[in-house]
Structure formats: C-alpha cells, structure tokens
Amino acid sequence: PCNQKLQRENTTISCIQDGKLYQYGASWIKNCYRCYCSQEGIGCCSIFFRPVGYDEKKCKLTFHKESCSYSVVQKADPSKLCEVHGFVG
C-alpha cells in the first residue's frame, strides 16, 4: 500500500522527512517503505507483501524487518514452512 505525506517546509526544490532534506526526484528506503520526493510532497509505498490464504490455526506468520519479508511456518514445527496461496501488498 502507498500513502502520500504532504510535508511542505516553505521550500520549492526539496522535501523534509525526519529532519532530513531530500531533493525533488530523490528516493530512499526506510522501515520497509520506498519513499520519494516530488513537488506534491513525499510519497511512500511498502516494499513487502503479506501472505494470505494459509492455515492460521496450524501456522504462524512472522515479519522479518531486516529483510522486509514474512515467513509462514508450522506452529508445531517452526522448521517447516506452510503452504501460502497468495500475497497482498
């Protein structure tokens, strides 16, 4: 999913996010979101996809922040992966 954050700091050629200045056209990845700076402001889109269509009773979903990915493993034996039927993001 994407979102648009309009952050105007009285500047005509850049955006500011978390105190950092970005020129128009710049893009960066932070907290598993790819962000970009444009004249409209800062826009960010997730770079991960959430698994869906797995057995939630028998399987556990875990998010791995370092790789911006999920794993779905069996609750009874976490060394075994579960079957996943789709992804959303």
UniProtKB/TrEMBL annotation:
The UniProt record lists the keyword Oxidoreductase: no
Keyword Secreted: yes
Keywords on record: Disulfide bond, Secreted
Protein localization: Secreted
Entry GO terms, CC: extracellular region
Domain of life (superkingdom): Eukaryota
One Pfam family linked to the record: PSP94
Family under the similarity heading: Belongs to the beta-microseminoprotein family.
Name of this chain's protein: Beta-microseminoprotein
Organism: Chelonoidis abingdonii (Abingdon island giant tortoise)
